[in-house]
């Protein structure tokens, strides 16, 4: 399914098995999928804005929040799997608003750092943002969706550097003293964080199928969903219970063995549907029913009351679904589709399995190099520019050029996800079996590694050569930023495929890895001649990035199980 301009605003086609959208209605927040997409990136952007409220006002306070955010991301992943990403997302925004609202009450440096630490809770909202987006968009666009929500959200860090000083200047112009003005500026992000947290909880669903607690029911009644959309399935309802599936409360003769008892499936309306288990003998039951009735020792005809919901009572949000000629119509059997992608409550055994898998190590280490390097470089870039060109570049000019590094996230991170999805579409023409998906995902994984290698090489070039021309330095940093931030998007394009039943756990571990990398690389900059040799710091981080990506490139994209 190629891109069309209407995909930006029209209700998307949905996968009939998982009910995930196969396009992204970016410009249609009224649609359920467009609404979730909007609140995913907007909520994360507001959280990022509030997370960075201190740096423009109080220097060197942002590093304190990285440790807090790391811990929150580790916890947020399992919480998403247990309670749903929407609830965790809204909860983090509302809980994070408390220290944000109390920040103006501090009166000394210690209070500022304590407040900044707890405001770091808001940085953990990245995890539910990605898990929520993954739950609403199908595999053909999930990389783009995650990259867009992450990239747009990261722009909140750049917005902070413009909005907070502007609000401060406006309040100072109204006659407020500096000590009063900087405290009052917190009212703006505080109001946005609270209102956004409440809005996404009230206006958005947990999953495309309804409430988080009912997500398993959709997988159970998937055979009826497939039949309603004429999609192939291992469950042939027309053969088993007759062709009239829209007649409710009917009496149906179901041939079969006495041991083939139907399975009751409880629907959300508390109605019971009875589906016979298929067996190799069922295909010829209609032709040999009379003969089997004579041999009562081996088989009987079972007459049972069966309640079938008409197909038009299932709410698909009026979105087009698969047809026999649509690619979405070719879907796996229920046991390998919706059930496989249904997130399970985390257990200690599952947490250990995911945390210790080589695939998790790949994502954590590569994201530590990409997002970790982004955090560290962003924190020193203005100082690097000012120190490298002291005679020609003012402090304000250096800060403006450094801000461009963060704003490239709006383009570069989505680019990483888009390229990843294009590779997936191009090489998945024969997608069907698990091992074939693993082969296709090598291309997604290769794109992650390529971004890491190019980033590492450019960091080494910037640090080793340390060019003396402003234009050349700006160009090299911008090119490095494109591959660095594209690597972030590419990483979370692959994450949804790896452990789909524990997507929150893997997302939390990967996100925490990014924060850990930010802390470690910040230490690298501080250790280079007491934090003054920025070029050497670039060189060291580049070498680490190259070594890590080469060291994990052999890991298969999917676990063997």
TrEMBL record:
Q: Where is the composition biased (Basic and acidic residues)?
A: 258-269
Membrane-crossing ranges are: 32-51, 57-76, 88-107, 113-133, 184-205, 447-465, 471-492, 504-525, 537-555
Known InterPro entries for this protein? MFS (IPR011701), MFS_trans_sf (IPR036259), NO3_transporter (IPR044772)
A Pfam family annotated for this UniProt entry: MFS_1
Spell out the molecular function terms from Gene Ontology: nitrate transmembrane transporter activity
Keywords of this entry: Membrane, Transmembrane, Transmembrane helix
Q: Does the UniProt entry include the keyword Cell cycle?
A: no
Q: Where is this region: Disordered?
A: 237-299
- Biased composition (Polar residues) is annotated at 237-248
Q: Per the annotation, which location comes first and is thus the protein's main one? A: membrane
> Does this entry carry the keyword Transferase?
no
Coiled-coil boundaries: none
Q: Report how it sits in the membrane.
A: Multi-pass membrane protein
- Location of this chain's protein in the cell: Membrane
Q: Can you cite an annotated GO cellular component?
A: membrane
User: According to its UniProt record, which protein family does this protein belong to?
Assistant: Belongs to the major facilitator superfamily. Nitrate/nitrite porter (TC 2.A.1.8) family.
Q: Give the protein name, as stated in the record.
A: Major facilitator superfamily domain-containing protein
């Amino acid at each position: 399914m190629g891109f069309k301009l209407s995909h930006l605003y029209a209700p998307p086609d949905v996968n009939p098995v998982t009910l995930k959208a196969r396009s992204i209605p970016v410009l249609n927040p009224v649609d359920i999928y467009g609404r979730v997409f909007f609140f995913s990136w907007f909520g994360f952007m507001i959280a990022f804005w509030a997370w960075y409220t201190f740096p423009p006002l109080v220097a060197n306070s942002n590093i304190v929040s990285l440790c807090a955010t790391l811990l929150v991301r580790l916890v947020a992943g399992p919480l998403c799997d247990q309670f749903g990403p929407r609830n965790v997302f809204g909860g983090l925004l509302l809980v994070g608003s408390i220290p944000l609202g109390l920040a103006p009450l501090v009166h000394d440096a210690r209070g500022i750092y304590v407040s900044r630490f707890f405001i770091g809770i808001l940085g953990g909202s990245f995890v539910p943002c990605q898990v929520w987006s993954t739950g609403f968009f199908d595999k053909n666009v999930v990389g783009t969706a995650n990259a867009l929500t992450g990239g747009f959200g990261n722009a909140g860090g750049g917005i902070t550097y413009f909005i907070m000083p502007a609000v401060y200047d406006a309040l100072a112009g109204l006659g407020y003293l500096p000590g009063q003005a900087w405290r009052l500026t917190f009212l703006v992000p505080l109001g946005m964080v609270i209102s956004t947290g409440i809005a996404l909880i009230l206006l958005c669903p947990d999953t495309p199928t309804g409430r988080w607690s009912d997500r398993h029911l959709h997988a159970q009644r998937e055979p009826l969903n497939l039949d309603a959309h004429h999609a192939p399935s291992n469950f042939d309802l027309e053969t088993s219970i007759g062709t009239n599936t829209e007649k409710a409360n009917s009496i149906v003769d179901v041939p079969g063995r006495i041991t083939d008892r139907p399975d009751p499936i409880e629907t959300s309306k508390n109605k019971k549907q009875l589906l016979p288990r298929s067996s190799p003998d069922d295909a010829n039951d209609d032709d040999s029913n009379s003969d089997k009735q004579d041999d009562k020792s081996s088989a009987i005809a079972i007459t049972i009351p069966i309640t079938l919901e008409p197909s038009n009572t299932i709410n698909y949000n009026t979105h087009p679904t698969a047809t026999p000629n649509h690619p979405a119509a070719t879907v796996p059997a229920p046991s390998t589709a919706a059930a496989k992608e249904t997130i399970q409550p985390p257990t200690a055994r599952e947490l250990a399995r995911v945390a210790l898998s080589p695939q998790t190590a790949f994502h954590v280490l590569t994201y530590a190099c990409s997002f970790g390097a982004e955090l560290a470089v962003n924190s020193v870039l203005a100082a690097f520019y000012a120190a490298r060109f002291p005679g020609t570049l003012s402090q304000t000019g250096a800060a403006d050029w450094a801000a461009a590094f963060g704003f490239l996230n709006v383009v570069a991170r989505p680019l990483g996800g888009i390229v990843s999805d294009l590779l997936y579409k191009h090489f998945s023409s024969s997608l069907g079996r698990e091992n074939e998906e693993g082969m296709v995902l090598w291309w997604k994984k290769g794109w992650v590694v390529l971004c890491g290698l190019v980033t590492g090489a450019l960091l080494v070039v910037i640090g080793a050569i340390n060019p003396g021309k402003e234009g050349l330095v700006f160009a090299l940093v911008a090119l490095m930023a494109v591959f660095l931030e594209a690597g972030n998007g590419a990483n979370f394009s692959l994450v949804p495929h790896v452990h789909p039943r524990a997507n929150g756990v893997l997302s939390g571990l990967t996100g925490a890895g990014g924060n850990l990398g930010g802390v470690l690389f910040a230490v690298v900059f501080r250790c280079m001649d007491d934090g003054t040799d920025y070029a050497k710091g670039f060189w060291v981080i580049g070498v680490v990035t190259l070594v890590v990506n080469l060291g994990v490139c052999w890991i298969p994209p999917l676990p063997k199980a």
